[in-house]
Write a structure and sequence with these properties.
mainly alpha; globular; 2 domains; 21 helices; about 450 residues; single chain
């Protein structure tokens, strides 16, 4: 884990008088999480003091400085343009459902005519952390990091929905760097993600190819955020939401529909189909992925492990779905293999390993994912091999633990009968089997 620390400080907490005969909403985060009554003592309630845990209260509405307050008095309209500060609470959704994308398109003014959005000092502190740290920790390459740092930031300054995506990913990054503040910053990240998703929906309703690049930037940031909070970073938080069991979450109940929904929307833009022509478009592309067509026969010993899976679904009614999924996995593996050795990289290219891994969701046939969520053995085994590929990304903070957890969940779901079929992913992630460990999936 990085040793970087954030300059973002806790926001001011404003005590709000409670109305009689109503449930208190001002308890600390830990008491809310455990659904127990909070004594609401500050800086530390009795329950947290007794349990020896950090007591944190949700930040309230951003308190403006006297200077900004004075300016607002001179400009009444400014009150309606400020953004609200997130209020972390127990029941938030790190990844909302797709209703914001599936609702009928709404009519809004062109983006260039909308009122300017004002961000608070706390939000600008998050943006500073993005500029100095988060943007540089996405690609493990200095030249690419500078493109991400400058290009993504410029897009964020032009489009509030991209800014909200930047803030959501940054808050998640701070939660990763500061485990003791994880609950607070994941709640903040969820707030900004929801705001960004609303803005994304309004942007796509414009049907304007001129903002396609910013839509792609938002999608890339959203992808990293979704994987980040769906994994270990949001583990204890997600279990209390409508995500089902831990197994459901690891099997992609949250992130797969989100990714497929976004891809469907973006495919309607002409720019999404055209070759990259700018540095920013180049960084968002997946290089020669579509040119890679795996042969029917295995090309090496590791590929042989993949191809042997065909005998599992030989007489299965869904054989063609599983075969196409296998080919998608092999395509991703061959693509990622290009960057396993420095000598194999093109002089003008860069390491796109994690992009290749993410591409699997878009490459696999859509009919595969219902079979996965039904926990059909062939679908689970293929997913375990996907986990083996993801394990190579464990040094990326937003992917930490994903590969291992996928293989662990599949191994526990399948049982000993299928053990030999997942030997490769089990070895790839160095799975530590505990026969005495009973987990409900």
């Amino acid at each position: 884990m990085s040793t970087q620390t954030s300059d973002v400080e806790s926001t001011v907490v404003v005590s709000i008088p409670r109305r009689p005969h109503t449930k208190s909403r001002s308890g600390c985060l830990d008491c809310r999480r455990r659904r127990v009554k909070c004594s609401e003592e500050k800086p530390e309630c009795r329950a947290c003091r007794r349990r020896g845990v950090e007591c944190q209260y949700p930040p309230s509405t951003y308190r403006r400085s006297p200077v900004s307050q004075h300016a607002d008095e001179a400009s009444p309209a400014s009150a309606s343009t400020s953004t609200s500060t997130p209020c972390p609470c127990h029941h938030f959704s790190p990844i909302p459902n797709l209703s914001l994308l599936s609702c009928p398109a709404i009519t809004t003014a062109p983006l260039c005519e909308q009122s300017p959005v004002i961000f608070s000092i706390e939000e600008m502190a998050l943006f500073q952390h993005w500029t100095l740290h988060t943007s540089l920790d996405i690609y493990k390459n200095s030249s690419l990091s500078s493109i991400c740092q400058v290009g993504f930031s410029q897009s964020a300054l032009q489009h509030p929905f991209v800014m909200h995506a930047v803030l959501s990913l940054t808050a998640a990054h701070i939660a990763y760097l500061n485990p003791e503040k994880r609950l607070r910053y994941i709640a903040n990240a969820a707030h900004y993600h929801n705001e960004g998703l609303k803005g994304f929906r309004e942007a796509i309703a414009q049907n304007d190819d001129r903002i396609a690049e910013s839509l792609f930037v938002w999608s890339a940031l959203n992808l990293l955020y979704v994987f980040g909070v769906s994994g270990r970073l949001g583990e204890s938080l997600c279990d209390d939401l409508d995500w089902g069991t831990r197994g459901d979450r690891i099997l992609g109940v949250g992130f797969i529909p989100m990714i497929l929904g976004i891809v469907t929307v973006l495919e309607s833009y002409e720019s999404f189909q055209t070759p990259s022509s700018t540095p920013l478009q180049n960084i968002l592309s997946v290089g020669n992925l579509e040119e890679i067509q795996p042969p029917d026969e295995p090309t090496d010993a590791e590929d042989e492990q993949f191809c042997q899976l065909r005998s599992i679904w030989e007489n299965n009614n869904n054989a063609s779905i599983y075969e196409n999924t296998l080919q998608a996995l092999r395509q991703c593996r061959f693509f990622m293999e290009q960057f396993s050795n420095e000598a194999t990289k093109d002089a003008g290219d860069f390491d796109r390993t994690w992009q290749g891994a993410f591409a699997f969701v878009g490459l696999a046939p859509k009919e595969y994912f219902p079979l996965l969520h039904q926990r059909q053995p062939p679908a689970l085994i293929l997913y375990a091999f996907y986990g083996g590929l993801l394990y190579s990304l464990d040094d990326c903070w937003f992917m930490e633990g994903w590969g291992y957890d996928i293989v662990e969940v599949v191994n526990n779901l399948l049982g000993s009968y299928w053990e030999s079929w997942i030997a490769w992913p089990v070895k790839a992630v160095n799975l530590k089997k505990d026969k005495n460990k009973l987990i409900s999936y």
